[in-house]
Design brief:
Layout (H helix, E strand, L loop, with lengths): L1 E6 L8 E6 L10 E3 L6 E2 L1 E6 L2 E6 L3 H9 L4 E6 L5 E6 L4 H10 L2
Antiparallel strand pairs: 1-2, 2-6, 3-4, 3-7, 5-6, 7-8
Length: about 110
């Protein structure tokens, strides 16, 4: 249904969030990653391939801080090809430890 990747190409690059969703999306629309009561992240569609549609964004520091501290689930929100709202629940469990490990890589 959805895949989320957080990383960077080079150590000096900012973190980038990439979301892959099924091909059933609506244009124009902007998928978002949201956490109740916290700043959300609006992504921009980049391309659609046979395996899914890709969107990405560079999150601000306050978004990453909120995701690191999250104790509840978040959600990816988008619009499907029929104009219906689609919500995919995601967990932030383990994200803080994963980002710490990413920051230690040479």
């Amino acid at each position: 249904m959805a895949e989320v990747a957080i990383g960077r190409i080079k150590k000096a690059d900012p973190l980038r969030v990439t979301v892959v969703l099924s091909m059933n999306v609506s244009f124009p629309s902007a998928p978002q990653v949201n956490l109740d009561g916290q700043p959300g992240l609006e992504l921009a569609w980049k391309r659609c391939l046979p395996n899914g549609c890709f969107a990405d964004a560079i999150p601000k520091d306050d978004v990453i801080r909120a995701w690191r501290a999250a104790r509840t689930t978040g959600r990816i929100e988008t619009t499907d090809a029929f104009g219906r709202n689609v919500v995919v629940t995601i967990s932030f469990r383990g994200l803080s430890q994963a980002l710490d490990a990413l920051n230690k890589e040479p």
